[in-house]
Amino acid sequence: DLKNGIVGYAIQTGQRSQIFVIDWDNKDISDKSNDFKQKLKDCNTLTINTAGGGHHFIFKYQGKLSNIKNHTHLFGNIDIRNNKGCIYFGDRDDWIYTIENKEVKIQELPDNLLLELHEEIINKTGRKVRQKLDNYRKAVEQNDTEKIQELTKRKYQNGEYVIGIERYFITPEH
Which residue, 9, 37, 35, 41, is CA-closest to 25? Predict the structure, then answer.
């Protein structure tokens, strides 16, 4: 518990801190996200209750998690915090973050849940790629040079320059 004027901490996630966090937010809840939340609770890993009524499920960072990037809105309300990510723990105007189960150890993420996350990431990324390609196709058909330029401009992302719609297809090896 936080006392003596300490407001809170930003905790880095990923390889550096050796934690991988699944952030279940208490908004935009779906049946799938509720089912996934129950599976996370069944893992009996360290869990932090967040200010908004959600939970941070803390797992041991493992090599098999190294290729998972930070994501938001998986299953509608689940965020992933991994390398170059962070979570908050402390006081907030409306709530204090609390540890739900202090007596448990941080567990490894089970392979079946990792597989579900991978499938949802692929589904979500695929939707974004289709939407971007549809927008690009429409701009080309309408000869909208301003929109084409916007969709294909270079952007700095994750330590490298990428070009608009291609950023979903370029891997670090290229």
Answer: 37
pLDDT in tens, the chain (174 residues): 445 555 777 889 999 999 999 999 888 888 998 999 999 999 999 999 887 889 999 999 998 888 888 988 899 889 999 999 988 887 665 667 878 888 899 999 999 999 899 888 888 877 777 777 788 788 888 988 888 777 766 555 555 545 444 444 433 433
Residue 60 and residue 45: Cα distance in Å, rounded? Answer: 9
Closest to 113 (Cα-Cα) out of 72, 81, 65, 66: 65
- Asked whether the beta carbons of 136 and 87 are under 8 A apart, the reply is no
